[in-house]
């Protein structure tokens, strides 16, 4: 009887202690940035995309290679799965070629279906539902800048999307307040008890976060209702002194956040982007443990 592969699909699927250990390893691996342990020698990661990516693709590719492994990158439309081949057959065959697969695909249901038929770890590189690798890097960045995430107030402004949803999941796991300010119609049925207006959300916040108002696949969307949720200097001034500003990027300057905020000392967006690399290494090390990876060894 074989054990289930270590998928990294949604944060609540994984034990809180395991997630915290992965974050601790991300910090350790960052310290070894110029002396990376060769944890992935002989291992291969497939990466499948049906959407654009800069950070996710590059950080996974560099993470694998710096730690001695290999990558194969495919556009979903160029694979047989983009034609007639079933998800189940694709998952079975990938399991024979590589040691793990990271997918950025729109449909969360398809990702779950791939995981059900896969004998190797499946990693969620963003679906329309969630973006767990991003939030691991974000929490790492908050720990780095503010020393902890537990007990902090994190304010989310703008669209209630895949990244926001994953932050909300993380708030229950790590024990931070997640204050959401979004156009009210987006929050209908979301059961968010702390949904509020932008000023109350940011008031006393340790971290202010936003994301694009138009996620990939939503091109042409009307953004008029989002203007009151723009992160600008006047809004940032309501946050706690020393508060940081975060954004998963790509940024639409002048829409969800102003240049002034991005140029201010509060902005940690490039450290946040770099931490994708270190977090990816730690996520991969956990997923690939059954393939022989020993991060403590
Ligand atoms: N934040 C993020 O996932 O960026 P990419 O779309 O460039 O991968
Ligand atoms: N919410 C954005 C995140 C991009 C990394 C999107 O889905 O396009």
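Q: What amino acid sequence fits the structure above?
A:
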């Amino acid at each position: 009887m074989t054990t289930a592969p270590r998928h990294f699909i949604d944060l609540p699927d994984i034990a809180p202690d395991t997630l915290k250990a992965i974050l601790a390893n991300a910090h350790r691996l960052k310290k070894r940035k110029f002396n990376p342990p060769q944890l992935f020698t002989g291992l291969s990661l497939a990466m499948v995309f049906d959407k654009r990516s800069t950070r996710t693709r590059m950080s996974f590719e560099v993470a694998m290679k710096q730690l001695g492994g290999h990558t194969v990158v495919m556009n979903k439309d160029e694979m047989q799965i983009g034609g007639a081949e079933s998800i189940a057959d694709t998952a079975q065959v990938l399991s024979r070629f590589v040691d793990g697969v990271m997918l950025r695909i729109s449909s969360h249901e398809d990702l779950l279906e791939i995981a059900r038929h896969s004998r190797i770890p499946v990693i969620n590189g963003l679906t329309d539902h969630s973006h767990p690798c991003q939030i691991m890097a974000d929490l790492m960045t908050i720990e780095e800048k503010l020393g902890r995430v537990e007990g902090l107030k994190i304010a989310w402004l703008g669209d209630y999307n895949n990244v926001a949803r994953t932050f909300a999941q993380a708030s229950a796991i790590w024990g931070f307040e997640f204050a959401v300010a979004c156009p009210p119609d987006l929050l209908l049925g979301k059961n968010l008890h702390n949904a509020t207006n932008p000023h109350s959300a940011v008031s006393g916040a340790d971290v202010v976060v936003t994301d694009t108002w138009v996620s990939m696949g939503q091109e042409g969307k009307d953004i008029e209702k989002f203007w009151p949720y723009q992160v600008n200097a006047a809004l940032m001034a309501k946050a706690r002194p020393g508060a940081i500003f975060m954004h998963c990027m790509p940024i639409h300057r002048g829409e969800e956040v102003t240049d002034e905020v991005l140029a201010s000392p509060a902005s940690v967006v490039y450290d946040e982007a770099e931490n994708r690399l270190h977090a990816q290494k730690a996520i991969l090390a956990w997923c690939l443990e059954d393939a022989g990876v020993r991060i403590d060894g």
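Q: And what stands out in the fold?
A: The mean pLDDT is 96.
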